[in-house]
Design a protein that fits this description.
Blueprint lengths: L2 E3 L2 H11 L4 E9 L7 E9 L2 E5 L10 H4 L4 E4 L3 H11 L6 E3 H6 L8 H9 L19 H12 L1 H14 L3 H10 L25 H21 L3 H4 L2 H10 L4 H5 L13 H14 L18 H18 L3 H4 L2 H8 L10 H15 L3 E5 L5 E5 L8
Parallel strand pairs: 1-4, 2-5, 5-6
Antiparallel strand pairs: 2-3, 3-4, 7-8
Helix pairs in contact: 9-11, 9-13
Length: 386
């Protein structure tokens, strides 16, 4: 059973009780289709034998900060977006985190949904809900409340099972290390100067056109954040590219471009766009932000395919989610000597990073073991007779 919390007094009582628990499960329901930042619509919280649904339209969620910053372990499932919502609405994120999706990846269950994990480990089928339900509508229906409650109702029980599996595989430390990294991910507001990297159509732009696109995309990102409006409502991707290609100097020239509509030019936006165009044109090549990532040297490109195949085999052998172990982008990042590459740190460095370095350095080779499995072994240096 769940309790709906719709007053600050009720929320304070729930938090006081949850603070005595060693751990608690949390989930959020939110919308962001019409806003830049996620708009929280419901928070589900479970601990011990208690489960409450907190209505953020009726209470001050900042009171939750005491729980999040406490010593209790916060259990989430695929919690990246939940952390963003909590940070925005409560001003903080959990001090300690356990993500059941991440934990499942360390016992070989790839990017599992909560429903699949509960079915697999507990034999529980979650109630079906409408993926497009309006969580901001009031009053919430019984079906909505029941569906929301199920997202945290079994999380702590599931955690016990996953933790036991992790202990059996000696991977608890790996999982907790990975869960801690969730707190380091960027949240709430993206860097405006990096907005250009998310525009697929801009990848072919060169020289001044790319610099103008970078400036206009940065302006769009900043205006979207300030007005809490989705970026594509401020200006379409096509509009950014068209402006970059044409470099308009007047509002009339702006109006004639594809992807630029009159609604995009209201409230002084037209002059701001023209200013961004000027900024982009004045950028020197060295001032462009962000610098495009260097291309992978041609002689290393075959290595990526080879190593990716070996990583897939390694993941199967170790019962790990391949995407958790290393992605193709991780491999390329390592080969480019990216200082932020995650294969150069922690457990991934030992399991993947160092062997890849040996392979590229010519000290190791990838081979079949006779049973169709790829293995990384010391390189003999002897060529086969032809």
């Amino acid at each position: 059973m769940h309790t709906l919390v719709s007053s600050d007094t009720e929320l304070d009582a729930a938090i006081s009780s949850a603070l005595t628990a060693e751990r608690y499960a949390i989930d959020t329901e939110f919308h962001r289709e019409r806003t830049y930042f996620p708009q929280v619509a419901l928070i589900q919280l479970a601990w011990d034998d208690q489960l409450v649904l907190i209505d953020p339209l009726e209470v001050d969620l900042k009171a939750l900060a005491a729980l999040l910053e406490g010593d209790g372990l916060c259990v989430v499932h695929a919690g990246v977006q939940d952390l963003e919502v909590l940070d925005l609405s409560c001003g903080t994120i959990p001090k300690r985190i356990f993500d059941t999706q991440i934990a499942a990846g360390f016992i070989g269950v790839s990017t599992a949904s909560l429903s699949s994990l509960l079915d697999r480990f507990l034999g529980i089928s979650l109630p079906k809900g409408d993926r497009l339900t309006d969580w901001l509508r009031r009053p919430l229906t019984d079906d909505q409340l029941r569906y929301a409650a199920s997202d945290v109702e079994y999380l702590l029980e599931l955690t016990d099972i996953l933790q036991a599996e992790l202990d059996r595989e000696n991977r608890s430390e790996w999982a907790m290390e990975e869960c801690e990294l969730l707190k380091e991910r960027p949240r709430n507001r993206r860097v405006p100067e990096e907005a250009i990297l998310r525009i697929k159509e801009a990848r072919s732009l060169k020289g001044q056109a790319f610099r103008v696109a970078t400036a206009v995309a940065a302006w769009r990102e900043q205006r979207a954040a300030e007005s809490n409006t989705p970026v594509r409502q401020v200006l379409s991707d096509l509009g950014v590219v068209a402006i970059a290609q044409q470099g308009p100097t007047t509002t009339d020239k702006l109006r004639g471009l594809r992807g630029v509509e009159s609604r995009h030019l209201r409230d002084g936006a037209d002059q701001e766009i023209l200013t961004a165009v000027k900024v982009g044109k004045k950028m020197g090549p060295s001032e462009r932000h962000p610098a495009r990532a260097p291309e992978l040297p041609r002689h290393l490109r075959p290595v990526v395919t080879l190593v990716t195949a070996w990583i897939a085999q390694l993941a199967r052998d170790h019962r790990l989610d391949p995407a958790l172990l290393a992605t193709r982008a991780d491999v390329e990042s390592l080969l480019k000597h990216d200082p932020d590459c995650r294969l150069t740190r922690g457990w991934r460095q030992d399991l993947v990073g160092k062997p890849i370095a040996q392979l590229v350095g010519g000290d190791a080779a990838v081979a079949f073991d006779g049973d169709g499995h790829l293995v990384l072994e010391a390189r003999s240096g002897r060529a086969l007779p032809m």
